[in-house]
Amino acid sequence: MRTGSQIIRVAFTYMGTIVGAGFASGQEILQFFTRYGGVAVLTIVLSTAMFIGFGMKLMLMAHDLKAESYEDLNKALFGNKIGNGISLFTMVVLFGITTVMLAGGGTVFHEQLHFSYQTGLLVTLFLAYIVLSKGIQAIMTVNTVVVPIMLLFTLVIVIYTWNLPSSGIWLTQTSDDSVAKIWTAPFLYTAFNLATAQAVLVPMGSAIRNRSVLYWGGLLGGVGIGLLLLAAHYALSAQMPGIAQFEIPMGNIITKLGMAAQIAYLLVIYGEIFTTFIADAYGLCLQLQQRTKLPRQWILIFVLLSSYLVSQIGFKVLLSALYPLFGMVSVVWLVMLLWRNRAL
Asked: What is the pTM (predicted TM-score) of this model?
């Protein structure tokens, strides 16, 4: 029973780390999959296979290396010099995502709950401090709460879509995009998400003593990610092409389901913002502690305070410039992960 519980915790943490706010909003699925029509079912299957294989490999490598942070893994993949450079670049991108997620938490409080933006920032920081002070096990616990809510919410969306006249077009839609663009999308999506998820997956892989827990947790988590991708694609396809104009496509569907669904969606969005925030902040703390040898609490306060200050200014412009470059680096990182056979 204990082993089974650990597998579920690993799987939910994997799913919660990958399925961030961009996923919950529907924008990521729309851009990487749904816009390409019926063939997206096949590209989602491909992406799922990569999430299963690479997710397990990533955690098992971290387990065997006894990696303190993702920097140890990158040095094992690329060597000390290049690995150090990639880790520093990853740290900048993770900090950018952290500030954007914090700003997103403030926006949810302001636009949806009608509190002030600053209240949203401070509540998110306070909750994050409590969780991060307790380490990787607390992060896993948070995901064990958030992910089931997300799964329930996804089931409601699928049931709603099932009864729509347009529910069957997810398999028949066509696209004018090139074959190269369509089949590049799942590789970019998987590479980018795994490269950022290493902030949590590496320390989790190192912390779990039982390799079989990581193996089955990675398998279950990867399958779960694939099912969530497929469900979101199914729901969004039934609303195409009109839904493509919305910044939060899934939110447009939710407005048709009543107040209870809107509240559940609000919890999902904030939960996914929060899990992404604590995942990236935790990865930053581990790498900074490894480099500076300062006490973890000092580093945690520094990271949270820095993200708060930068969230006042905005990091979106810089992040939009870094994202494409990090996407290319992520693909190289994924290829190197494929070639290394230390864990599987």
From this structure: 0.87
